[in-house]
Fold this sequence. Notes:
alpha/beta; binds nicotinamide-adenine-dinucleotide; Rossmann fold
Amino acid sequence: SLKGKTAIITGSNSGIGLGVAWEIARSGANVVLNSFTDRDEDHALAAEIAKETGVEARYIKADMSKGDECRALIEQAGVCDVLVNNAGIQHVAPIDEFPVDKWDAIIAINMNSAFHTTAAALPMMRKAGWGRVVNIASAHGLTASPFKAAYVAAKHGVVGMTKTVALETAEEPITCNAICPGYVLTPLVEAQIPDTMEKYNMGREEVIKKVMLERQPSREFATVEQLGGTVAFLCSDAAKQITGTTISVDGGWTAL
Ligand code: NAD
């Protein structure tokens, strides 16, 4: 059980981050949710987790595209036993047409934020005598697809940084690993299904298996619960000697 520990999950007012927050809270850890907005519904998500699981949960606004706000998130939380670097965005374009502002935003949010949060969190983990850094990378941290230059570069960068942080903490009770999901069924992905069904004149199952999961041999999405469970595993005693590596949750994508 992670009772008494505190987990900070960046980019966690939707999708994988929110799913991870729920699973970690069910494991008994207090959770800090984050995104760049500061709406009532953001704070309501934390209140719902607290109510359902009995842990302490709060929401802290911080923009992960800004280094000082990444560090401020950790400082404001005050304690960080588990750091899950999850915030991320995507943009798809050929490299010679790739908008510079999109490139900069993807590198900042998907990669640089993990540098800043990890730098701020490690001293807290050292003081507490225990720590887990889990970076949500991607199958695109290990392989590439066309038109995703910034995303693939950032995710490969995160995998590289994961290895370095693991070496710098190797003799301490701290581990750092990356999870590499394939296609995950998040609300964002779910929302694309009706349009794709119409475009290809296919049923839901056919669109999922033939179009969306073309590269995922299992022909099934990974779920946010499975990703939360993988984070919880990396926080367990069984994972004490697992550091500096990647765990693929991709239905066989990277085995191809
Ligand atoms: P999502 O859009 O549902 O979640 C992204 C989260 O990041 C949101 O909470 C959003 O508010 C937050 N975010 C975006 N910009 C931010 C900023 N500037 N500051 C703070 N928070 C910010 O998407 P998701 O699918 O849940 O993605 C989560 C992570 O998982 C990303 O790093 C993504 O690259 C990775 N991933 C997703 C998939 C997939 O198939 N969905 C596959 C592999 C990896």
